[in-house]
Amino acid sequence: EVVPEMDPTSFGFRRLxxxxxxxxxxxxxxxxxxxxxxxxxxxxxxxxxxxxxxxPEAQSKQFGYNxxxxxxxPLPVGSHNPNHGLLCVNHxxxxxxxxxxxxxRASESPEDLKRMVETEQAAHGHSVVEIRRQGPGAAWQxxxxxxxxxRITAWQSKLQIRGPxxxxxDLRTLDDPTGTVCVGTLNNCAGGTTPWGTVLxxxxxxxxxxxxxxxxxxxxxxxxxxxxxGRPSYRWHEVQPRFDIEQNPNEPNRFGWxxxxxxxxxxxxPVKRTALGRFKHEGATSVVLPDGRVAIYSGDDSAGEFLYxxxxxxxxxxxxxxxxxxxxxxxxxSVAQFSEEGFVRWIPLEHGQRGLxxxxxxxxxADVLIQTRRAARVVGATPLDRPxxxxxxxxxxxxxxxxTNHTQRQQADGANPRAPNPYGHILExxxxxxxxxxxxxxxxxxxxxxxxxxxxxxxxxxxNAYVETFGNWLAAPDNFAFDRQGRMWIATDQGGAQLKRGHxxxxxxxxxxxxxxxxxxxxxxxxxxxxxxGPAFTPDDTSLFLAVxxxxxxxxxxxxxxxxxxxxFAAPLPPRPAVVVVTHKQGKVIGG
Length: 592
Ligand code: FEO
Ligand code: CA
Ligand code: CA
Ligand code: CA
Fold this sequence. Notes:
By secondary structure, the protein is mainly β. The chain is built from ten helices and 31 strands. The strands form six sheets. A nine-stranded antiparallel β-sheet has the order 14-15-17-18-19-24-23-22-21, with no helix packed on it. Strands 9-8-13-12-11-10 form a six-stranded mixed β-sheet, with no helix packed on it. A five-stranded antiparallel β-sheet has the order 1-28-27-26-25, with no helix packed on it.
């Protein structure tokens, strides 16, 4: 066999090796600027970061914890300005051991517990931050007194609930008898944007927040099907009864939705869009259909859960932004069934059809949307290996789905070809190509882009034949971004397996066409313990925003004893989740 002498990929950088270090690393020729860290000021009157004196009042004005989804929204709205925009960032979760000093997290005083819980809630949610630079190659600056800067939290933010399930009896609580206004948004993992310039946040692992015993409720399956087992990761239910399902059985029904935020209007209430269904939304990715309607794809990130698509009933209006305000409240939700022959079929989740009726306990479309997972099983959707991010290639129109792993899978099938699957894989879906790319079609084709894992036979990995010479293996693909050339940038999240494998999480560049197809090259490595989130480019591809989540967090680590104190490295300061921005030293396009 003839190995090419030259790197067959389109990327002009030299790959990094896979070693884990206490600091981040980026390919030669690039610079990393730390832009926003946990605790940095977002609102003009935010106090300075002091991890030894945390409070919900301070935290709700500061950048939140564990940044995940990142997107850059140009200013003014509708422009492609690469030098001035709003950085919109999710804060997925908190980890008390890493976030609080021991005196605070171990205190049993009710006042201290309440303060800790409320600080955690204020560290969740979303940040909108105005940023600008002089031009490609120049450093980015946070605009401190911006009228756009905003924190949305799980502490005091009020969100509207809209769509077919809004006001349903299952969404009503003592605090909100209307079932239409919810305090907070939880576990905002990945997300997306809409053509009209709003941001979508996926509410993912909402089970972690709820205490109480499902067995002592009237319908335990309602909770257990969403992973609520009465073993919360947090102590919120001890302080606030709304997080105790025995006292407030409907509160969990108000989470697990896609949230729409208008970053250009700081006074606009975020909205939970129930038409898109309730499950553990990794994110939400939009694409415009040839006829002007809009499709939103979303993965449900649990082992053996499903891939969904929502299509709006109406077309979007490019000429009047406000006309699209409630476009996501009406449309059709469907779920993917993968055949062994390579077809994807999108099955509508429509009340009254395919068994979704009273015989299965669905009295209305609202019931179908509140219990989406159960409805998807009834219609015969294909269980997948933890669907994380879904992204549409802007050049080819193909859809890519990260299946991050499924360590307990018993039986392999076409779209999930390994059992167990500890390394994850990436599916490539092809909609019919007619006048345009038909993202609303009933049938797509599917194939596998790559199977993750080390370059040995035992792992069952599959990449470009020249990966060993020119690239890197990867595991646990999680988030994707595409550059303007339609090349894929893959972020990974191995969790605890990172240390066992000695393989840093990070960002990998990957061609989808030509000689370099399916040949990942490592561009960025996270510091030890962190997973890679984001990624997001400016519209000119000269800046790349990356979210480093849970740096220094390994088994047994803590605030006092982290595996890394990234990015400040200033003991006794703990590590700080942060968004960094990568630029080429000469201001060129990222990746060449
Ligand atoms: Fe929050 Fe699916 O990762
Ligand atoms: Ca995460
Ligand atoms: Ca994720
Ligand atoms: Ca993940």
